[in-house]
């Protein structure tokens, strides 16, 4: 078994980073080369702006190269909750921004010629318990009525035709959701940004970002550069030197296992519907097939604030057990990959984007940013170029999480609370 991301392992790494020390003067510097930073840099470069993209590790190193590969429609909270939070007009705009992001990804892939197996397969949110059916049916009705008439309710019998599993009692189908190879998309976006003229540094962790008279001076171990504007696109991987943001987001680990490629017979017996799937537990699981027909199965597992060799191995064992609870027919199928990554959660689980503390930022996707990060990257590029009306989540208050200093010490208690809730019928 490999303890690395399947997406990293099966995509051609970006080869266009500069080997020079950090140097020169830029109009905009983008920190973090996940989907947010990559699309911000790509759009700025394409618009003729002199832009630097600076990544601590390698392109797609963070959540963008480690996620479950679901590009799902809408936010995971109910539309009613979003309406109560934002007010009706803004809630609609917020909700639709997830679909707009998927459309934007599809358009960029076509425009830049990125080969990443993009597919509109749809998503099922599965009822894990009979007691969850009523709530999910109400959610489905509300979505159909308020924002997305294409959403449908599937009965237990319908679900059984989609999935070779007795574990579920019905599901909400969102047909517009999509999937792709996340590593190929990340590396393809970096190729596109470089082709349009962005200068990309890998292996250059930003150690300081200091305001100077006409902008900012950014320093890494190799050197320093000047930039008029700075975009922070570091989400859950935000480092201590950006404390303002760390106090507003909690990094929570999520883990994934991937099997060996399934045979056509095994696919037919497990996921013949070939969509994105999530279940309705508080500590939920998500799964899908990879382009080469492996089962990718993920979840919060141990509910930890860290992803390292120890937490990944323990969580991988738990995930395999959870996978077999859903698909006992895969008992003899080997696990080829196991890894973890960090999700940047805000206290209210809504993302944030705008300008604060002198920087332009977009983050806090709360585990649901594989699609939205591309759109927010575009929004941040617009803000850097002086345009603010494209931001679907602008102007939201964002207070520090009480008693949170950057390391979420309270996570084990939260995990126990949700685990107990999941034990109830
Ligand atoms: C295991 C897992 C499963 C997930 N599954 C899904 C899913 O199926 N669907 C979905 O919608 N969302 C999912 N997500 C969430 C989604 O992947 C993220 O919301 C999204 O990728 C965030 O993109 P980003 O570009 O903002 O941040 P990231 O991709 O995390 O990129 C941030 C980058 O900033 C760099 N960085 C940090 N500090 C510095 C510094 N000081 N200097 C230079 N660089 C720095 C990091 O190295 C990192 O590469 C999942 C996340 C995880 C971890």
UniProtKB/TrEMBL annotation:
Key words of the record: Oxidoreductase
Keyword S-adenosyl-L-methionine: no
SUPFAM superfamilies, per database record: FAD/NAD(P)-binding domain (SSF51905)
A Pfam family the protein falls into: DAO
InterPro entries on file: FAD-dep_OxRdtase, FAD/NAD-bd_sf
Record has Protein transport as a keyword: no
Cellular component terms per the entry's GO annotation: cytoplasm
Protein name per its UniProtKB record: FAD-dependent oxidoreductase
Taxonomic source organism: Mesorhizobium temperatum
